[in-house]
Amino acid sequence: MFTGIVEEVGTLLAREETGGAGPEADAARLRIRARKALEGVALGDSIAVNGVCLTVTGFVGAGPKGDGTAEEWTTDVMAETLRRSSLGALAAGDPVNLERAVTPHTRLGGHLVQGHVDGVGTVVSRTPGEHWEVVRVGLPPELARYVVEKGSITLDGVSLTVSAVSAADDPEPWFEVSLIPTTLRETTLGAVPPGSPVNLEVDVIAKYVERLLGARS
């Protein structure tokens, strides 16, 4: 479980693929540079990479104690994850948002985030403001019903508040979020141009409510 508060922007150093290339690969091993996101982390722990929950399978430069001296870590990504998220399009040198899994004593600064991507959206436009930037994102129609104004959504692992949504009958649904200077500066969202894919995770509470109400009816 995560909160959608990015702790560090790491760098994908290397990507080793098997059984194909890019989104068609059967699996991929990623090697990622990080520092803060590795503090207190041991083998088998979870780190969200652009909103995708991944397991730490190895360290480079230190032992498995997560003592803060390691600066690189590895993780294995299966075909299902490559296909259902934007990780399939990542290349060496790309920046990635990183967040360690929460502990019972972690402040819940964002909202409850599972690290399970529901779909991939597309940045439609960016509109700069005096103190923020409004970003419009297109999303798969099947996810639109879970997105509401003033509700929460996760973009590439960043917990954000929805500031506007398209009409319910819009065949190409979208939503907007307003990014404050800290988000623009401290996450990858500050440099994502229109046309780029972004991982989306809708509020899991909305999905549970829909399931429960459907069962009752």
From TrEMBL:
InterPro entries (UniProt xref): ATP_synth_asu-like_sf (IPR023366), Lumazine-bd (IPR001783), Lumazine-bd_dom (IPR026017), Riboflavin_synthase-like_b-brl (IPR017938)
Main enzyme class: transferase
Keywords annotated in UniProt: Repeat, Riboflavin biosynthesis, Transferase
The Lumazine-binding domain, residue ranges: 1-111, 112-213
A Pfam family that the UniProt record links to this protein: Lum_binding
Keyword Transferase tagged: yes
Swiss-Prot/TrEMBL catalytic activity: 2 6,7-dimethyl-8-(1-D-ribityl)lumazine + H(+) = 5-amino-6-(D-ribitylamino)uracil + riboflavin
Pathway: Cofactor biosynthesis; riboflavin biosynthesis; riboflavin from 2-hydroxy-3-oxobutyl phosphate and 5-amino-6-(D-ribitylamino)uracil: step 2/2
GO molecular-function term, one example from the UniProt record: riboflavin synthase activity
Domain of life where this protein originates: Bacteria
Any single biological process term in GO: riboflavin biosynthetic process
Statement: the UniProt record of this protein carries the keyword Phosphoprotein: no
EC numbers on record: 2.5.1.9
Sequence ranges of the Lumazine-binding repeats: 1-111, 112-213
Role according to the record: Catalyzes the dismutation of two molecules of 6,7-dimethyl-8-ribityllumazine, resulting in the formation of riboflavin and 5-amino-6-(D-ribitylamino)uracil.
UniProt name for this protein: Riboflavin synthase
Organism: Geodermatophilus africanus
Taxonomic classification: Bacteria, Bacillati, Actinomycetota, Actinomycetes, Geodermatophilales
